[in-house]
Structure formats: structure tokens, C-alpha cells
Design goal:
Blueprint lengths: L7 H19 L4 H6 L3 H16 L1 H8 L13 H5 L2 H12 L17 H11 L1 H11 L5 E5 L5 H10 L7 E3 L6 E4 L9 H4 L3 E3 L2 H11 L1 H4 L27 E4 L6 H9 L5 E6 L2 H14 L4 E5 L6 H4 L6 E7 L14 H4 L2 H19 L2 E11 L8 H10 L3 E9 L7 E8 L2
Parallel strand pairs: 5-6, 5-8, 6-7, 8-9
Antiparallel strand pairs: 1-3, 1-4, 2-3, 9-11, 10-11
Length: 422
Amino acid sequence: MDYQLKGNKKDQLLQFFDELWTELFSSPIHLDSALSKRAKHTKSILAQILPQILLQPNSLAEAVGVGVAPGEPWSLTPAQIVKWRPAHLMAEYLYRSMSQGRVQTDPVVEDFPSQMVDEWKADFGPEVAEQLAKTLGQEAPLSLRVNRNPGPTKLLDVLKNEERIPVRAQISDFSPVGIRLAGYAPLLSTEMYEKGAFEIQDEGSQIMALFSLFPDEFSHLLQETPGSVRIPQELPKLPENISPWTVVDACAGAGGKSLALADLLKGKGRIYSYDVSERKLQALRRRATRAGVTNIQAVALEEGNESSAINRFEKTANAVLVDAPCSGWGVLRRNPDIKWRQTPDVLVRMPSIQFRLLSLYSSLVAPGGRLTYGVCTFRKAETRDVVRAFLDAHPDFEAQQGGFVGPGPSDGFFMQSFLRKA
């Protein structure tokens, strides 16, 4: 594609960048939502410029020769960030060099707010903090979760034969249902996608679904501290003898894990997918229809009043997954705007929200059943501390396996399994 606009068109593109930059820091809009409102060609260009600036503001500025004052941009207020001149200069440079490919950088801790880095050091030590910065400052790979039928090997063969993968691709060496691609590929228009054979889903998220059903088989993939995944010598096998379980996906969102759970159970049993967003659940229903999945029941709840809808199902579920709202530090590669706009009060509130949801949905676990707590972050306050608080308040549960996955090459997750005492 010819990205080089000439004359006034170039100035217009930079004007669009400035408008988008202003919108991001003057409203609560998410980066993806802001981009989606732009015209197709403009969106395509901005989607390659803006995320890199958000991801690597200091290392990128150093690489392209743009001066940045010490402490910036993290010392600035949102109003000052709106007028932060280095962002415009980096956008102009990235646009001029777009035909030559992505500007190569070496991510540094200065690409992240000092408060964030200080918390990494306090929780895990300076070496882990430095590695987290290097990993979370890089572009994320694209990963696919593949249904049992056709399975990753067959799907990859089909997509390669159709010449639909223009980037390096491999069978995951971490998830038995995964394929990892080095970058973007136009896969959502393929026949296999339309048949529901696969979904775009990070490998760490795939592991969370697998772990929530089969913790004994997948717990050895978890680590004591966050960091690059420990590649097993052999991928765990998917259990073939499946019982018709009742499973609850408590914070289902658009249903990526619900769809994974349904396929892992071979369509048996029932998946109850709860969320407070009817819009997200509608997306789940559409995805389930495309995939031919019939054992998911999506139920919208009223935030703060969830118990009125779920109380009658107390102690009936074989497995409950609470993939709770969190700070999202494990997915900063995909959502770099988080680190620019997250306020301290949000971080303070998160553990109490997570504890409430974990306590609420734990009531659904049958005696002898499993409860899994998961978050896409690695903050001690939202992981180990929440687990400890839950166990102190719920003596009818005991901790089983738990730990971190990623970041690198997957996103960063924490997951903990509990057993309800009989």
C-alpha cells in the first residue's frame, strides 16, 4: 500500500492524528473505539503510528531524534499531554518512514510511568521490573485459539495453502489449542473463521480457560513471578473423557473464554456466561452462533445487584471462572493507552472489586467443585493479596494451584484455583 500522502494530504493526516490524540486525553474513550470512528484509510495509517508512540514514548523519541524533557510525559497532566509536542513530531517521523517498515527501538523503563515501575520493583525486584519493561514495550504477537476440530495443525495447513498468512506462523509451544503469528494477517475474512473454527485469543487467555477446567493438567505452566513463559518439553494433552459439567463464566464480556470452555467440554454440559454488559453478551451470542455452539447461556446482570439473579443457583456449578476486572497491566502491549490514563484511585479500588466478585460467585461452586480467580495483571495487590483475603473470609475453600503466565510471548495473567471443601 502506498502510505505517502502528498502536500495537503500529509498535513491533513497529521491534523487527524492531533485530533485523535486530543480525544484520547480529553475523554475516557478507549484507543480502539477512537480509531474505529476514523475513515478506513486514515484509520489504517493512524493504527500503525499512534500505538507505537503510546507504547514506546521515550525509546521511540530517542530512536528518531525527538527531544523529550526528563520525566516526561509521565510528569504531565492530561491537559499538558494533549499539547505534548513530541507526540506530533514522532507521528510526523513515523508517517514519513512508514514505507520502510516499523522503526526499531529498544524499550526502556522510562517508557512506563515511574509509579508503575516502582511497584514492579517493590513486588518482584529490579531485575523482573526491567524485564517487564522490555517485554511490555514490544509489539504483541497475534494468537489464535483453535477448536478441537480442526485443531491447530490442520488449521495452519489450510491457511497456509490458501496463502492467507503473510507473516511467520507456528503452532503454539505453550497452548495445545493455539497458533502464534508474528504480526497481523487478514484472517477474519477466511472461510475457516466464518465456520467458527478459530477465534483470535491470546495464549495466556487460552491457558486460563484450560486451567479453570483442568487445573491438575495445566498448573505446571504457571510461574511464581511474572515473566516469559516457561516452555514445557511437551504440550499438555487435552482430556478426552469429558463430563457434562455445569460451568460458570462469571465476567464473560464478549465471551472469548466462554467459547473456549464450550469447545473444551466438547459441547457437553452447560456454560452460564454472566456479565453486566448486554452489548458484550450480544457479541458473545453472535460468535456462538457462528461457531455452532449451543451449550452457552448468556445472562445479563445488573451491576451491584448480581446476587438477585444467581442466588437460586447456589452450590450447583462444577467449575466457576471469575476473570475479574483489573488494572490490565498484563495487556499493556495491546492497550498502551492504559498506562497514560490510569489514575491512582482506580488501582486502589481494584482489589475490593475483585474480592467482592470472587466472594459473590464462589457461592455457586458445588461441594468438591473448583473456583478459579483470574486477572490480566500481575500486581501483588490484585493477585496474591486478593487470594489471601478470600481465603481468610471463606474457610470453606482451600487454595490449590496458582501462579503467573507471561508476559512474553503471551500477555500477562495471574490465576488461582480453589477447591470447595465437601
